[in-house]
Design goal:
Length: 149
């Protein structure tokens, strides 16, 4: 049984920047409910939190396992959906792992920027796409480089 509940799945530019002809990738937000790993009695984790090595700290919940926020929200792609050797519930390389309060206090614009930055990795940010009179496209990046697309 999974500890995750899917919040949403959306398409993002594969490398974090939208331009003509860019590839798109599905990005999914997986929430971990507050009761998972909680030390609150009778929730099943009296012997410890088996997810402590890869999730934000467990939450104190009410007796029914409810809390104000989710324990975590993990942002993944299809490539990072696989479990690790350490634990089958641990994603191999999530784009982001947020605690529930961080996620709840973030605007979608802020979350979008974090996801795009993670997808971009160490590549420079696209600043402008130029389309010439003959229809040729060129991409210009924040580090001063450019390329024709």
């Amino acid at each position: 049984m999974s500890i995750y509940a899917t919040l949403w799945s959306l398409k993002f530019p594969r490398y974090g920047d939208v331009h003509t002809g860019c590839e798109w990738i599905e990005v999914t937000a997986q929430a971990v409910p507050p009761h998972v790993g909680s030390s609150t009695p009778r929730l099943g984790y009296e012997n410890g939190d088996p997810y402590a090595d890869f999730l934000p700290p467990a939450l104190v919940t009410d007796e029914d396992g409810h809390a104000e926020f989710m324990r975590a929200v993990v942002i993944i792609t299809e490539e990072t959906k696989k479990g690790t050797a350490r634990h089958p519930q641990e994603y191999s390389n999530p784009l982001l792992t947020l605690d529930g309060k961080q996620h709840a206090s973030m605007t979608f614009d802020e979350l979008h920027d974090h996801i795009c930055n993670a997808l971009r990795g160490d590549r420079p940010r696209l600043v402008i796409e130029a389309i010439g009179l003959e229809g040729r496209h060129s991409l210009h990046f924040g580090d001063g480089t450019s390329r024709n697309s």
